[in-house]
User: Which sequence fits this backbone?
């Protein structure tokens, strides 16, 4: 299965200020791309553009060589996006939250798989507690359980390490590397320092004109 | 993320990655209906508020105008319809706001399923727990306004049909204003003018029933309005949600 997300001469303007200009990206299978930059440098905006949520940008996006406009259905079927807000309903239990996400992906899924996924993120025993009563880190973990539950090749993760404890961070990092090694692709923003591996590449945003890859 | 996870072999993982989502719109729709029903039933106040508002507003009229049954009976159809319409409007602001605040709306926009269909499912739940209860409650309040006997069935039926259109039209406004901090007032300004046709034929149907005229024409027009909104509103809701997320 091919996996290639390209951006050509991407530029985005917010409040009369260019967040980034002439940004060329070529993201392929087996890569972890970390978007770096200070607060307000447009990391989240870039992820939203690359995941097809924002449309007010200049430049072109290509998915597997096809213009994004035409490949959108295929692209969405390959994408798993976890935003800044975890997208978890406080009034529902972790199991109910995951069941909805599985159904949105078009799968009925089964309860056992959801339980396994929750156990995988260290939430065994909390399956039936309303998510609103869980801690911020646990709520984030419910969202992260989707990584295992709904297998998708392209992961776009906006600050996935927020509120996660140290052991959780190590496990998640290992999960990202495993995903890349298995032929997946991860696009991530984080202030947490990722361990340098062969898969890791960086994009630096902000601070004037030194945009681009390092 | 705990240490319990067993390491996958590369081939296993590669297989897992290539599992295509076997697109089941029905599955997604059913799950969305179930989720929204569950959410609303767990926060009962949101379901009860419009009903209490409806009852309170209707109670104010005999106090404020006159307890004279004859006078009340002549204005009852209009009063009941206007109060129900405002009660339905009151509940619209929360339709997409919860999803917007916690990030579920972003996820909804990024599913491979058509957004228009998922939006329609959310509106259906809204009608089921707001419009339909309002319609069922209206005859009881009709007694308070000494609405002439024989028009109760038409009142409930016209409201059930009409509030479905109101939910659909209002959802467009709710979708457009969901990104704004104080969208409530703007929502009313946007949506109320569009409610006028539904109000005219809804109240008209009840009036016709009181006068003993045929109500079929009014109800047919209400049904036609519903059919038209059912055709266009889902697309407008989807487009409005995209605009709101872009903002």
Assistant:
């Amino acid at each position: 299965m091919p996996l290639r997300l390209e951006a050509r001469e991407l530029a985005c303007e917010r409040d009369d200020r260019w967040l980034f200009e002439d940004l060329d990206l070529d993201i392929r299978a087996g890569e972890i791309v970390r978007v770096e930059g200070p607060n307000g440098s447009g990391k989240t905006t870039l992820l939203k553009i690359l995941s097809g949520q924002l449309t007010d940008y200049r430049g072109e996006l290509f998915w597997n060589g096809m213009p994004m406009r035409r490949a959108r259905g295929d692209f969405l079927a390959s994408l798993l996006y976890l935003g800044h807000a975890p997208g978890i309903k406080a009034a529902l239990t972790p199991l109910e939250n995951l069941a909805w996400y599985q159904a949105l992906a078009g799968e009925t899924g089964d309860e056992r798989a959801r339980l396994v996924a929750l156990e995988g993120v260290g939430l065994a025993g909390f399956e039936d507690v309303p998510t609103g009563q869980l801690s911020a880190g646990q709520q984030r973990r419910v969202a992260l359980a989707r990584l295992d539950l709904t297998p998708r090749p392209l992961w776009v993760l906006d600050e996935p390490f927020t509120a996660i404890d140290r052991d959780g961070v190590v496990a998640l990092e290992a999960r990202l590397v495993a995903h890349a090694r298995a032929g997946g692709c991860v696009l991530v923003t984080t202030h947490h320092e990722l361990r340098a591996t062969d898969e890791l590449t960086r994009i630096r945003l902000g601070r004037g004109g030194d945009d681009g890859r390092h | 993320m705990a240490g319990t996870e067993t390491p996958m072999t590369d081939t296993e993982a590669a297989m897992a990655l290539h599992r295509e989502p076997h697109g089941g719109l029905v599955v997604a729709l059913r799950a969305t209906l179930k989720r929204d029903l569950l959410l609303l039933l767990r926060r009962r106040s949101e379901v009860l508020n419009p009903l209490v508002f409806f009852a309170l507003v209707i109670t104010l009229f005999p106090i404020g105008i006159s307890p004279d049954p004859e006078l009340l009976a002549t204005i009852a159809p209009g009063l009941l319809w206007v109060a129900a319409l405002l009660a339905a409007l009151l509940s619209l602001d929360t339709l997409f706001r919860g999803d917007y605040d916690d990030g579920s709306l972003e996820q909804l926009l990024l599913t491979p399923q058509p957004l228009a269909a998922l939006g329609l499912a959310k509106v259906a739940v809204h009608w089921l727990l707001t419009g339909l209860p309002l319609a069922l409650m209206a005859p009881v309040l009709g007694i308070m306004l000494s609405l002439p006997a024989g028009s109760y069935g038409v009142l409930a039926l016209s409201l059930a049909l009409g509030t479905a259109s109101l939910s659909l039209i209002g959802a467009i406004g709710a979708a457009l204003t969901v990104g704004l901090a104080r969208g409530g007032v703007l929502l009313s300004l946007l949506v109320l003018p569009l409610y006028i046709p539904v109000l005219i034929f809804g109240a008209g149907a009840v009036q016709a029933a009181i006068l003993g005229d045929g109500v079929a024409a009014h109800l047919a027009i209400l049904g036609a309005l519903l059919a038209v909104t059912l055709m266009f509103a889902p697309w407008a809701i989807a487009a409005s949600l995209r605009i709101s997320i872009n903002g």
In short: Chain A has one domain: 4-213. The domain at 4-213 of chain A is CATH 3.40.50.300 (Rossmann fold). Chain A touches chain B through 56 residues (CB under 8 Å).
